[in-house]
Amino acid sequence: MHVLVVHNRYSSAQPSGENKVVDQEVGLLRAAGHRVELFERRSDDIAARSLPGKAAVPLLVPWNPAVRAQLAARLRAERPDVVHVHNVFPLLSPAVLAACADAGVPAVATLHNYTQVCPPGTLQRDGRPCTECVGAVAPLPAVRHGCYRNSRLATVPLAVSLSVNRRRWWSGVERFFCISAAQRDVLVRAGMPAGRLAVKHNFVPDPGARRTGAGEHLLYLGRLAEAKGVRLLMAAWDELAAEGGVGVPLVIAGAGPLEREVTAWAAGREDVRYAGLYDAEQCRQAVARSVAVVAPSTWLEAFGLVVVEAMAAGVPAVAAGHGAFTELVEDGVTGLLHRPGEAASLASCIRRITAAPDRNREMGRAARRRYEQGFSPAVGLERLVEGYRSAIADRSAPARGGNTRASRGDGDSR
């Protein structure tokens, strides 16, 4: 199979689960003998633009005509079987879908978050769940509240793109890959076409490093942001420390907007270590040495890659009991689920998972079995190729009235 992957890579200065998923899927397909090529833009390149070029970036978010022309020309020249779209913000834009229609190549898209129904993609505002824009024709509440980077001006391009490109997304993509059933449920309720929404969990390569003992630390691995529950974790850990601690330290690894706050909080403490940004090998080793991985997100995670990485290493997780975590973590079997947003509940789960080493090891073994059954490379490859074949078949199948899907007119002259 010949696949062209379309992705706007996130900044390399912060952890990106999406970048990791894209790289892993490309490697998986190539290892299986498929021909995979890339059509990419990099957010890192924005810094090298001239001042006028930087100022023009928001204008490209809803529509980038140059990308449409470039991608359409490449598709006509190379004729891939399918285009797999990941992130298009900020430099690619939904113009990639028009290019696919221009060239008559079917497109699939992985939905890594909720940007189809929420401009910043988090379904959260001020640390609390928010669905004000879900189902709205124009997502004006997001602009009013400045939901992206706490800026009304920065939110406008995302809100405009969502509003003007909604129909193009919903008609121009043959198959959407939802990365959890929880995410699919939200999107179906928001009005997205249920028949095109398939659940395809992200896979995780076997890390090679597996936990062999009881573990040395608790680990938070990810972006240091409010939505990831970092402040909630700090509050819960302070509660545990006031009671004498749990016998192992907390390691926090990552980068993000709360980095200074985390650094100051951890300074001078023996029970906390802020490790900064780990590379891939350091991540694998840190997970394998964990008593448990902690994922206390306050927003509705569409997946939760770090939880599955822990499973692969035979390590249980303590995660928030909402969003995708409820289908990834079997409470009391492969880990523990705490009440979302409640520091006391998170502290209680951390206390429980560190207090019984034998039970913890049993959870770790169950987590590894869950990984092998549902999130291994073999399972990931099967579901990915199946999705591509379904999309290709749908594109070529006669539609009602005898017309083909390829002649629906999705590629207008905009």
UniProtKB/TrEMBL annotation:
InterPro entries: Glyco_trans_1, Glyco_trans_4-like_N, Glycosyltransferase_grp1. It comes from the Bacteria. GO terms for biological process: carbohydrate derivative biosynthetic process. Gene3D superfamilies: Glycogen Phosphorylase B. GO terms for molecular function: glycosyltransferase activity. Keywords: Glycosyltransferase, Transferase. Residues 218-370 form the Glycosyl transferase family domain. This is Glycosyl transferase. It comes from Streptosporangium nondiastaticum.
